[in-house]
Design goal:
about 450 residues, 2 domains, single chain, 21 strands, 15 helices, nine-stranded mixed beta sheet, about 20% strand, six-stranded antiparallel beta sheet
């Protein structure tokens, strides 16, 4: 069962900070580029960046470094009243209003911020859907050890096709929000406080029988588990201790406003890469169609038809877009009708054999290009990008030899894989928009 709890969040007081909330909160740590980090620092001493993703200094040592500076910065913000703890435990409805990238479609995604009981994956309450890497977890673990504080939201999905929680969220968010901020991607984030005991109990009851899927935050969830285990090893287990819970935003996987964007793959640095050899190696598995843009063909029109067909053909069978260096055309690779995937990929479950991203990794990257799973995990010859234009531009600039362009997974597909106890290739999903860090902050030691 999923156990959630209200908590007394620390939240920014813009008046004390002398800056609007837009200048105080940040994107999640793993989405902050060096340029974004510099911009956040330029906003002044109260921006969350020293705690969310501090910068290393030449004078850093084992005893004074990015993690100890983060802890000192946090204590100073609390001392000044820039960060203040809410008077009563609450749950926090949190909505995001946004336009789906590349479209004019406006959506409003509804979520609930709460503390969730940390559960081992073996308990089959919380389910991952992607693999993780050791490096990011070690960084977040050291930060958690030093600060005993969580600034960013774990993004978890719950299975509620009847949308009972959604209706309660709509009722709880009728008044003026406690906070509202528009981020650099023109996404508006709104936050409400719910501290009425009966409403809190209703949320707890409705979510009690739900299984959860980690949408974003696998590294942070596993970091929280590791830290919990460290704390348990130092003394008797206490079920009410702060390290037994983590701050999370819960969103219905059946919401029409839940948005997943594709993450495209760039391959680079392969010796003697040749597109014709790739196409020949792929021919047992895929049919292909070319969209040339020379000989008088209008390139924007060729790209428009290509993108349209990638989406439309992808509705009926796995379809992967290909842009390769030196090629005056774009290509669609479509899985052959009657393809014997059970024979080719016996180690892959039937539910995953129908997914574009899995076939890309297993057939094109591994079999046709010779990349092994370890090199893919370490990104030795692989880079991930969100934007279509960035993927094609990287090939044209010579930064990549080939780009593989994908349709996004659908939320039910992610849930089906996760509930079966399986995981997808790294960066198979890009849930949009990201949840801001700093709207609510959870201190593990705070009452």
């Amino acid at each position: 069962m999923a156990r959630i709890y209200p908590f007394r969040a620390f939240r920014y007081n813009p008046e004390k900070a002398g800056a609007p909330l837009e200048k105080l909160v940040t994107q999640p740590y793993d989405k902050i580029t060096p340029e974004m980090q510099a911009r956040y620092y330029s906003y002044g001493p109260h921006n969350l960046i020293p705690l969310e993703l501090g910068r290393k200094e030449a004078s850093d040592s084992e005893t004074y470094n990015v993690y100890t500076r983060a802890a000192a910065w946090l204590e100073e913000q609390i001392r000044q009243g820039v960060l203040a703890q809410d008077a009563r435990p609450a749950l926090y409805p949190s909505f995001q209003e946004f336009i789906v990238p590349g479209t004019r479609e406006r959506r409003r995604r509804k979520g609930l911020i709460a503390l969730g009981q940390l559960e081992d994956y073996e308990a089959r309450v919380v389910h991952p859907h992607e693999r993780t890497l050791a490096g990011p977890k070690q960084d977040r673990l050291e930060l958690l050890r030093r600060t005993r504080t969580q600034t960013g939201q774990l993004f978890l999905l719950y299975d509620d096709p009847r949308k009972e929680v959604d209706r309660l969220l709509a009722q709880a968010a009728k008044g003026e929000p406690a906070a509202s901020v528009t981020d650099e991607y023109q996404v508006t984030h709104k936050l409400w406080r719910v501290d009425a005991a009966d409403t809190i109990s209703q949320f707890q009851r409705l979510l009690a029988d739900k299984k959860l899927v980690i949408a974003d935050g696998h590294h942070r969830y596993e970091t929280a588990l590791a830290y919990r285990n460290e704390c348990r090893a130092r003394g008797p287990e206490a079920s009410e201790a702060g390290h037994e819970r983590a701050m999370m935003t819960l969103i219905n996987m059946h919401s029409a406003d839940l948005t997943i964007l594709p993450t495209h793959r760039l391959v680079h640095g392969l010796p003697n890469f040749n597109f014709e050899k790739l196409r020949e190696a792929a021919s047992p598995y895929f049919d292909w169609y070319a969209y040339p843009f020379e000989g008088g063909v209008d390139r924007p029109e060729a790209e428009r038809r290509f993108r349209k067909d990638l989406v439309e053909r992808g509705k009926s069978r796995p379809t992967i877009g290909v842009c390769a260096s030196g090629q005056p055309a774009l290509y669609l690779f479509l899985l052959k009708v009657g393809a014997d995937l059970a024979k080719w990929l016996p180690e892959v479950s039937a539910r995953q054999r129908s997914l574009d991203v899995v076939l890309l990794h297993k057939l094109l990257l591994e079999r046709c290009l010779g990349l092994d799973e370890e090199s893919i995990r370490q990104q030795k010859n692989l880079r991930y990008v969100r934007e279509w234009e960035e993927a094609i531009g990287a090939v044209e600039r010579g930064e990549a030899q080939v780009a593989f362009l994908l349709n996004p997974l659908r939320p039910p597909q992610v849930g089906e894989v996760a509930f079966a106890g399986e995981v997808l290739p790294q960066k198979s999903t890009d849930f949009y928009p990201k949840l801001l860090s700093g709207l609510t902050i959870y201190r593990l030691d705070a009452p």
